[in-house]
Design a protein that fits this description.
The complex is a heterodimer.
Chain A lengths: L11 H14 L17
Chain B lengths: L11 H14 L17 E12 L4 E14 L2 E13 L2 E2 L9 E11 L8 E2 L3 E6 L7 E10 L6 E2 L3 E16 L2 E11 L3 E14 L4 E14 L21 E17 L2 E14 L7 E5 L6 E6 L5 E14 L4 E11 L4 E12 L5 E11 L9 E2 L17 E15 L2 E14 L19 E13 L1
Parallel strand pairs in B: 16-22
Antiparallel strand pairs in B: 1-2, 1-25, 2-3, 3-10, 4-9, 5-8, 6-7, 7-8, 10-11, 11-12, 12-13, 13-14, 14-15, 15-18, 16-17, 18-19, 19-20, 20-21, 21-23, 23-24, 24-25
The chains are: A mainly alpha, B mainly beta.
Chain lengths: 42, 458
């Protein structure tokens, strides 16, 4: 449990990339953290 | 439920620092097991390069850079910077036809009397001069594109370059209380976003329970190329209205619990409310003949000016004897009528030398917004709101991926992830009229992403 890989957001960069992709392609977003820097994506 | 510290991991510096960065970037801190004191790096650089490619649609290249600096035992600064370059065809929202179709949009404003030598624009459009109004000192160039018969209408001129930056601060106050705050900014050629966030977390039960709360305020400005169109008016090459703004407030409440020595779980509730301009200024919706189904006009879309969103997010991580399993669930609904469920599964299979393989699968399903229509029918009263943006339609999406990571030395790690995204909806609705019965109104969207990552701590 002490391993950092057990942190619930062990890879924030990957999570931010995923959130941005799904935000721009799907009708729902968010849930675990603030998106931050929203955009008018296509 | 006191946890016993395990032997230090093979890469104590980098991994511990990444975990600190992860905690700082979340809206609130999560419960974590206590660790023994150790020498840790004070700086972590986390970089990524994303290549995203849709089949027949847009492609994007996105370099990402994150810096986390531990100021002292209780203070952590984080900085992030991203550039997002996107280009390629994107759906207009119009329906295909058995006949050729023409689409027009404002291209450029020039002083009255300026000689016009441009005859084509990017994407193969034909540029024409819009006759100026009486007394005008400027006039507009418009770009017209022709879509061949039986072809899903796409905007082939789309390209964008987005810059985004964020800064955050995390401060441990003592007695199990941690606060964090941050700023975020992004800018495109037609959109700007600014936001500020604040969060607080409280550890309880010997660090096995964490409560967290956070708020975020976002202010956006939309300044579309060609101006902001009046909703539900006919598509034209005329210059449109002034910039449009939008604001959003988000709030998150979370509970993180160490369930057993090997299982940590977190439940978050989010509420979001936005006001202002929510339209996509480039999206149109076709009005079709009630018998033939042929488009007779194209209108700019219109969405409600208020949106309230709620979601419930459940995260789980379980450490097996060697590997790690992560399973997340999200339920979502908003007052536009969209309901969705998301299930996400990752399995980290540990290899010798602390390398790992991580297969990933994600299932997503959403219902349609109550103002989504593939098209409007001529001769009927116009609805108050209407959009043919398929992101607001009913569909499902599947993601499959595989990630490989390996430490390069004690302080650095390289990883690569490849994923495939497949989104599909109902392209042949039973109510389709005339020629629309032979068209695909929701072509499948597939995309491949490749994400390279490199982290270094010192």
């Amino acid at each position: 449990m002490a391993e950092p890989a057990m942190s619930l957001n062990a890879d924030p960069l990957q999570a931010a990339v995923d959130d941005h992709i799904y935000f721009s392609k799907e009708g729902s977003s968010g849930g675990r953290s603030f998106a931050g820097g929203g955009c008018g994506c296509n | 439920m006191q946890l016993k510290a395990k032997a230090p991991p093979a890469m104590p510096g980098l991994r511990r620092m990444l975990a600190t960065a992860a905690t700082g970037l979340l809206a609130g801190a999560h419960a974590q097991a206590q660790e023994p004191p150790a020498e840790v790096p004070t700086t972590t650089i986390d970089t990524g390069l994303l290549y995203y490619h849709e089949n027949g649609r847009v492609s994007a290249i996105e370099p990402d850079f994150n810096l986390t600096q531990q100021i002292d035992d209780n203070s952590t600064l984080s900085l992030g910077f991203t550039v997002d370059s996107v280009t390629g065809p994107t759906p207009l929202g119009a329906v295909p036809s058995t006949l050729p179709q023409s689409y027009v949009h404002p291209y450029k404003v020039i002083p009255l009397g300026t000689p016009v030598t441009v005859t084509t624009a990017s994407g193969g459009s034909v540029v024409t001069l819009v006759p100026p109004a009486t007394g005008a000192t400027t006039q507009t160039l418009s770009a017209t594109r022709t879509v061949p018969p039986n072809t899903y209408p796409l905007d082939t001129t789309f390209k964008d370059l987005r810059y985004a930056a964020n800064a955050g601060w995390q401060q441990v106050l003592g007695a199990g209380v941690t606060v964090n705050g941050g700023l975020a900014y992004s800018k495109e050629h037609d959109y700007r976003s600014e936001s500020v966030n604040f969060g607080v977390s409280k550890d309880l039960n010997q660090h096995n329970t964490t409560l967290n709360a956070g708020v975020n305020y976002e202010s956006d400005l939309s300044f579309p190329l060609g101006g902001t169109p009046t909703p539900l008016t006919v598509m034209s090459g005329d210059w449109k209205g002034p910039d449009a703004s939008r604001s959003e407030v988000d709030a998150v409440l979370g509970l993180t619990q160490v369930m057993t020595r090997r299982w940590i779980s977190s439940l978050s509730y989010s509420y979001s409310e936005s006001h202002g301009y929510q339209n996509d200024p480039y999206k149109i919706i076709s009005v079709v003949d009630p018998v033939s189904g042929q488009p007779v006009s194209q209108l700019y879309e219109n969405r409600p000016g208020v949106r309230q969103k709620q979601s419930l997010y459940l995260e789980n991580k379980v450490h097996l004897s060697r590997d790690i399993v992560e399973f997340d669930l999200r339920g979502y609904r908003d007052d536009w009528g969209i309901k969705s469920v998301t299930a996400d599964l990752r399995y980290r299979y540990m290899l010798p030398g602390n390398a790992y393989l991580e297969p990933h699968a994600r299932y997503y399903q959403q219902g349609a917004a109550n103002f989504f229509d593939y098209y409007l029918v001529g001769g009927q009263p116009l609805p108050q709101y209407a959009s043919a943006d398929t992101r607001l339609a009913k569909f499902r999406a599947l993601t499959y991926g595989l990630k490989f990571g390996m430490p390069l030395d004690e302080n650095s790690e390289f990883n690569i992830r490849i994923e495939y995204y497949d989104q599909s909806g109902d392209g042949s609705p039973a109510f389709a009229i005339g020629q629309l019965r032979q068209q695909n109104l929701f072509p499948a969207l597939t995309a491949v992403t490749v994400l390279l990552g490199y982290s270094y701590a010192f």
